[in-house]
Amino acid sequence: MLFAHLNYPSIRASAEEVVLVLPLGAIEQHGPHLAVVTDTDIVTHLAVTSEAALPDRVMLCPTFPFGASHHHLSFGGTISINPALYTQVIVDVVDSLLENGFRRIVLLNGHGGNITPVKQALAVLSAGSPQANAANIALVTYWELAGKPFAGEAPMESPALSHACEYETSMMLHLFPEKVWMENAVRAKRPASNGYIPWEDDEPYRGVTLFKQTAFVSSNGSSGEPQKATAEKGAHLVAKATEALVTFLEAFAGWEIGGGF
């Protein structure tokens, strides 16, 4: 079911029974080799494919295309909502969905910069909204959900998905090759490893976080090893991400709502 194609009586009649999926994307620079719509394109494809697999159980909202991307602004090609405002936007959107009667809501994320403000939005909702506490509202970031295929498992040659990397570039080569310029795909220069901060994929996360603008950690706005991308790798990743998402949505549809003792 597509939210935007229904009238309001149909939406209200289905709201309590379906999983509402809201994809969250971004419009931001993706190095010199990928279109700025990359995050939005990938997450939208995964959402549309998953809805098609579960048409009676999933209601799909239009993708929200703008993300928290201030760290990319210096490169140009980026439209961003600052993190504090993005948190409030998510709170307001989820409040609207709750008012419509939805009780199973999945915020399907396709951009790393959205993760922290969306988690904050869920905390705000939990602290102040009885409706939110009477619903199941999940943030789902597709590459984290899919796990090992996005964390160095063959056929991938770099250790994890990052930004405009081997993984994203491969998926775009598979899905939207007209939006990829492989002649511009090169490994960016980046800071030397310091043993604690994973600027990209050079150190495991050790509980230390340091926020920097992308221009500080990448000479051209990309990350990882985009030059190693292939359409075949992308097909593999898209299939794994879709499988993981459909499996999750089927499970989520059956989770108990509310609870308490």
CATH top level? Alpha Beta
What count of helical segments does DSSP give? 9
On the 0-100 scale, what is the average pLDDT?
94
What is the distance, rounded to the nearest whole angstrom, between the alpha carbons of the first and last residues? Answer: 35 Å
Largest sheet: 4 strands, parallel
Spans of 5+ residues with little confidence (pLDDT < 50)?
none
Strand content: 5-15%
Radius of gyration: 19 Å
Q: Supply the number of structural domains.
A: 1
Which superfamily, in CATH terms, is the homologous superfamily? Creatininase
CATH domain topology: Rossmann fold
Q: Could you give the order of the helices and strands? A: HEHEHEHHEHHHH
> What share of the residues lie within helices?
25-40%
What does this molecule look like?
The protein has 261 residues and is an alpha/beta fold. It has a single domain (3-252), classed as Creatininase (Rossmann fold, 3-Layer(aba) Sandwich), CATH 3.40.50.10310. Helices cover 38% and strands 8% of the residues. It has nine helices and four strands, in the order H-E-H-E-H-E-H-H-E-H-H-H-H. The chain has helices spanning 8-14, 38-53, 83-100, 115-128, 130-133, 142-146, 166-175, 214-217, 231-252; strands at residues 19-24, 58-60, 104-109, 136-141. The chain has a four-stranded parallel β-sheet, with helices on both faces. Strand 1 (19-24), helix 2 (38-53) and strand 2 (58-60) form a beta-alpha-beta unit. Helix 2 (38-53) crosses helix 7, helix 2 crosses helix 9 and helix 7 (166-175) crosses helix 9 (231-252). The mean pLDDT is 94.
